[in-house]
Amino acid sequence: MIRVKKLSIAHKEKELVDIAFDVENSLALVGQSGSGKSLTLKALLGMLPSGMKVNLELESKFELIAGESVAFVPQNPFTALSPLTKIKKQFFVEESRVKELFEELGLDTRLLERFAPELSGGQLQRVVIAMALSKKPKLLLLDEPTTALDPQTRVSIIELLKKLQLIEGFSMLFVTHDIVSAKELCENICVIRYGKVVEFGKMDAVLKAPQESYTQTLIEASFSNREFRK
Length: 230
Known about the structure:
The chain is α/β, with parallel strands linked by helices. It has a single domain, classed as P-loop containing nucleotide triphosphate hydrolases (Rossmann fold, 3-Layer(aba) Sandwich), CATH 3.40.50. The chain contains seven helices and nine strands. The strands form two sheets. A six-stranded mixed sheet has the order 5-6-7-3-8-9, with helices on both faces. A three-stranded antiparallel sheet has the order 2-1-4, covered by helices on one side. Strand 6 (about 140-145), helix 4 (about 150-170) and strand 7 (about 170-175) form a beta-alpha-beta unit. The two termini are about 25 Å apart.
């Protein structure tokens, strides 16, 4: 388990985020545009601009090192890879590890000889996930990884992530505005609004009996197929 005991982010004396949460197995971080989801993710990755003041207090059995113990799957697989370099040249681990991941992800190893524009959206997302898992991270951060995919591919990626978690043994923090996908992937949910946690708990319990009207609004919006901007 990774316990974020305190994460505060400020810019020009304005507090943007002040939250705490636990990532135990799988956690969905949910909220509307401007809630602080992306800032939280970037803070954990050490990717915030130098002008922002960050205070991060963690309790973990391992040190959070981006690219090593912590890996990242971005929102758009179409811009995550170089279009001018063969797929195999974009991995920096042993070939045996790449082939192992391709097998787990149902990818043909012949794709390693291709370039990113030659792959479908679903294939690209699987390759990006393989890259993220290549160094066997302890924590996988996912930034709306199914948003750019069609519904059928979205479902298959969710199922693959669940299977991979059992095989590889990582924890997941899934940042999203889509509670439908969050429900399918995560055991726990943390709802944030204006940089504050408004609801935290087991996914099923929160969806069945939300304590906050804000959470209820998000649930109704997701399950009626209306979308909130990130």
